[in-house]
Specification:
Helix 4 crosses helix 5. This protein is 28% helix and 22% strand. A hairpin with an 8-residue loop joins strand 1 and strand 2. It is built from seven helices and 13 strands. The chain is an alpha+beta fold. The longest helix has 20 residues. The chain has two domains: 157 residues, no CATH class; 103 residues, no CATH class. The two termini are 39 Å apart.
Length: 289
Amino acid sequence: MAERGKTVRLFFIEGTPTGRMKCELSNWTGVAYRIPHTMISKCTDRKELNNTGVYFLIGKDEDGITDKIYIGEAENVLPRINQHIIAGTKEWQDWTDCVIFVNKDDALNKAMVKYLENALYVLAKKANRCTIYNGNTPTKSSLSETDETEMLEYLDNLRLLMGAMGYKFLEEMESVPHKDNNGQLLTLKSPKSTYEATGKVTEDGFIVFKGSKITNDIANSFNKYGYCALREKLIANGTIVNFEFVKDYLFSSCSAASSVIQGHNTNGWIEWKTKDKRTLTDIMRETSE
């Protein structure tokens, strides 16, 4: 059967894209709300937010680039979000937005949302696109065959709406061939052989391939924030071992990738080159002519 398009409706409650947003999928009883941290107190006008559901707290990691998330569930979601705020230093406070999923008819029960919480944690962990703040893997509840089938469909719709809102941390990175296809493979090499890397532009950003080597020389201007912090995190979490990528890694941009590899802030659009020495800027000019 051929795949059909889907209709997603976005409603900006305050009339601006920076305020609260309601997100719905046609012919589905689920509904998502994206709410800035500063607007949680305004949400008493949304009664369905007191239903049973799952939620994400979303912010940025210490590098200021990588998403950091907390995944939770509750029988009364909005009061649970308020508990996060009231708890102060006992809970993570540096999130900027939360995304809540509930059913309009309040058909979800505790076992269902525990199942969803576990599944979402596993998806985010496998995708490896963000830092997960949960201390432990959420417990997976046991469901009947019919309820599990329903929750798997709920997960599919949830992921679709998360993507529509611009969040990709539940989506596993697609495998990208390391071989060169029509000059798509890009290299970054030091004249003194202190680093050597290969990668490709993808729809999601820029992927650096396993086996790429980074420099061990850090510029004094490459401070502890931004790309330097990202570099330190990749070393700490085992993505880079002995100055070498031990697995493919997706960066948000080509400049993030080149800066981590070269140990100072760089412009990836001119640093990454094809085997015939064309830069990414050259390629963009060629495709736009």
